[in-house]
Amino acid sequence: MHVENYFSNFCSQQYYLRSKGKPYWVQTVMGGINKKTKDHFLSYTDIYGTQFKNRNYVITGLGLHYCQVLFENHWRPDLSEQEARKLMEDCLKIMFLRDKKAGDSVQFGLITADGVKIEEPYQLQGAQHDLKYVNDRPNEWYLGRRAIV
Known about the structure:
It comes from Strombidium inclinatum. This is Proteasome subunit beta type-4. Keywords: Nucleus. This protein is α+β, with helices and mostly antiparallel strands. Helix content is 31%, strand content 21%. Mean pLDDT is 81; it is low at 130-149. The protein has two domains: 1-58, no CATH class; 59-149, Glutamine Phosphoribosylpyrophosphate, subunit 1, domain 1, CATH 3.60.20.10. The chain has a three-stranded antiparallel sheet, covered by helices on one side.
């Protein structure tokens, strides 16, 4: 069964549960590559079961509010892997500075026709140095998952 079939099934379940008043409160992203045709599939569904199919990129959660314009202005079909990584890192730095509960570590994964490659997590460079007052108390800086006084 291809990922498109799983996606359609999940969207139907989301819509059914939403109609019953008990939706899963998640935005689900599904992606994959068809081994026979080498076509890629990247789509997501919201809590209402609405389907957004065959997207070039997917932004969810608070990133939709903070980073959508950045992606719309800088994304293009011939974007290299390094340029895409830089664009995502810039978005994650913005998220780190805007959301006081966000962490500054990131882990990238790459899906190609050859397989899946998941990299080791690392800390964003420069995010800590741009940090001003991201917490309610000006003497605390929020780094990772702990406050430093």
